[in-house]
Amino acid sequence: MFCNAEAFVRAVLLLATTLCLHLIWTPPYNAAANERVLVPTGHRLHRNVDAIMMFNLRVVPFPLLGRIFFWTVAIGESLQNLTSLFGPPSGHHTALNIPLPVFTLLCIVVIIGCAIRHASYRALGRLFTFELAKRSQHKLVTTGPFAYVRHPAYAGWFIMLVGIAPLFLGWPLHVLPNVVGIPLLMYVYGMMGVISTSFALRMEFEDRLLREQFGDEWERWRKQVPNKLVPYVI
């Protein structure tokens, strides 16, 4: 049985983490179709991956489903956690079985990733879109997190994934019937993989696009900020 303080800490940490994910999973700006020009990519794999991601952004829509999924898991975990004050936990919720120090570290990792991605949203302002796009009146942003790496929003995403998997993605198999939990988990893991692959492919293409558009200005920035994701590393 968790002590009162531990149960409360777990609930607060998980709900705070989910709030951060909610903010990051919400598009900061919804530009009208005539305000942006979608940029096709020449790489076949990139085109296919981006097509899958765009379908899930516009038709499914994945960002809304993601927010619902995270809040469902967080509220379920937190309620289960708090009921442990009155008896032993059922063991169905995998995050409850993570030792508190590791649980805390995972939440902090997700929050750090969210903070980096949110700082990128703020630095880009209305230039940011979930789609790969070149906006009218586009400008080269080199401030905020872009002063340290060239693709901080993607860095934030990959950091978030480290904590998301153990905190949230075991829930469908342990709580839902297999006929629901297995397809749901396959879809979530599949979309995480699609998004991560798209981001990895986008970095090279975006660098080339910005170099073509901004020329010497981009080259100066690249020399000042040589790393894509992690300062002094990669």
Automatic annotation (TrEMBL):
Gene Ontology biological-process entries: methylation
Localization: Endoplasmic reticulum membrane; Membrane
Main location: endoplasmic reticulum
Membrane topology note: Multi-pass membrane protein
Top-rank lineage group of the source organism: Eukaryota
Membrane-traversing stretches: 7-25, 98-116, 154-173, 179-201
Enzyme class: transferase
Catalytic activity, reaction form: [protein]-C-terminal S-[(2E,6E)-farnesyl]-L-cysteine + S-adenosyl-L-methionine = [protein]-C-terminal S-[(2E,6E)-farnesyl]-L-cysteine methyl ester + S-adenosyl-L-homocysteine
MF GO annotations: protein C-terminal S-isoprenylcysteine carboxyl O-methyltransferase activity
Gene Ontology cellular-component terms listed: endoplasmic reticulum membrane
EC number: 2.1.1.100
A Pfam family per the record: ICMT
Keyword field: Endoplasmic reticulum, Membrane, Methyltransferase, S-adenosyl-L-methionine, Transferase, Transmembrane, Transmembrane helix
Family of the protein in this entry: Belongs to the class VI-like SAM-binding methyltransferase superfamily. Isoprenylcysteine carboxyl methyltransferase family.
Protein name: Protein-S-isoprenylcysteine O-methyltransferase
Organism per entry: Cylindrobasidium torrendii FP15055 ss-10
